[in-house]
């Protein structure tokens, strides 16, 4: 620890109390750990502010002593970096430890105001305590994940409120100089519409603080959905890998016409069964990727196909929803390939129940079973965009299968499909305890990024291992962001290197 860091921590202990600072080796190891190929990144310390004013104190002290900060809410995204800073030695500002209040829930106007530490599980419990009149959109990630942090990382769910940034409104932000700014209508002192009117007056500032290091968001409004009396999911199983193109051609029109209010999930076989199964080493001797025959055997064990399409309808009664189910059944069954799985049948499957939960706004940890597919605890996300065109979808599937096979990994993939674009959620699972496999996983990730970029398909999020490389591929944007960064953070104290922004 440098003398400047020691002075920084001493000043915060004096101003915020000794419990607000932790530099114990075991704490640094815990906050520096991640699941990525690039290895752990230990911070120089962790601070725990308890209010916006205390965040201001931390930021001002960092400017005084030249210390680099790494703010996080709950740090629960296992495939992007966990709590680990993008660079070793940065000071983790753990906002979630003490700033974890649901400040307000307005049931009439259907919104909540949250601090960074508020989790999906916490919000679900509070909405339940109030009678579940309102429903939040949730990810399929850990229930301990933070609502605010997921929003700032462009995270999403699956219900009609899937766009978490789009459903946020009114940020309170500590700038890198220690000043506070409130966005949207919150910029007016005493505003009564801070959490209602998203765009406010003048240029829209909220986007500056998404996937960036231009400010620390300490409070945020999140819009909630009136909970429908009836939620009914539907599932269609398709038998073959190459059916993906037909699936996309079927999904696109019903999303363009808003027939189905949710996103549609198109889930690959190993993404589905991997929540319950582990790689059958005894049958394969560790060879990767898994053979087509063994994949089929696992599918048949669980009564699923190569792809599973899922979505949901909402309504006042069962009778109101049933015609919608019949309409979507007729649409998919005309392919001659799909097998329909009803809501009632799906409720009996732990694999399919995951999707019912996400469409119903209920946090689930069952999808985390995917992290056990192979031993060694390694996991990384690759998240490119795929247009809703069947030909392109099959080209992307072939591209991903080829690159993963060349590097010795399985295709674990789910598409979250809107009307025009899908997000291809690739989960790269590897043994992080074996040096050769860890390095191979890193090469595989970069090969995927390279191949998709060369074809004109960028990613939406990136693990901390490759954030700078992904940003460097963009034209014009890095230079603009650098100029904004220098204006708002003249001493460069806030998370330098995050998303490649210096």
In short:
34% of the residues lie in helices and 19% in strands. With 502 residues, the chain is an alpha+beta fold. The longest helix has 20 residues, at 435-454.
Would you write up a description of this structure?
The protein is α+β, with helices and mostly antiparallel strands and 502 residues long. The chain has three domains: 3-97, Uridine Diphospho-n-acetylenolpyruvylglucosamine Reductase, domain 2 (2-Layer Sandwich), CATH 3.30.43; 102-226, Uridine Diphospho-n-acetylenolpyruvylglucosamine Reductase, domain 3, CATH 3.30.465.10; 230-454, FAD-linked oxidases, C-terminal domain (Vanillyl-alcohol Oxidase, Chain A, domain 3, 3-Layer(aba) Sandwich), CATH 3.40.462. The protein is built from 16 helices and 19 strands. The protein has helices at residues 3-16, 25-32, 52-65, 120-129, 147-152, 244-256, 269-273, 281-284, 292-302, 318-333, 343-346, 350-359, 390-407, 435-454, 467-472, 477-488, and strands at 21-22, 45-47, 69-72, 91-94, 102-106, 111-114, 134-135, 168-174, 180-182, 216-223, 225-226, 230-238, 264-268, 307-315, 339-341, 377-382, 385-387, 413-417, 421-431. Strands 12, 13, 14, 15, 16, 17, 18 and 19 form an eight-stranded antiparallel beta sheet that branches. It has a five-stranded antiparallel beta sheet with strand order 5-6-10-8-9. A hairpin with a 4-residue loop joins strand 5 (102-106) and strand 6 (111-114). Helix 6 crosses helix 13 and helix 13 runs antiparallel to helix 14. The longest helix is centred in the C-terminal third of the chain and has 20 residues, at 435-454. It is globular. The mean pLDDT is 96. This is FAD-binding oxidoreductase. Keywords: FAD, Flavoprotein. Pfam families: FAD_binding_4 (PF01565). It comes from Hyalangium rubrum.
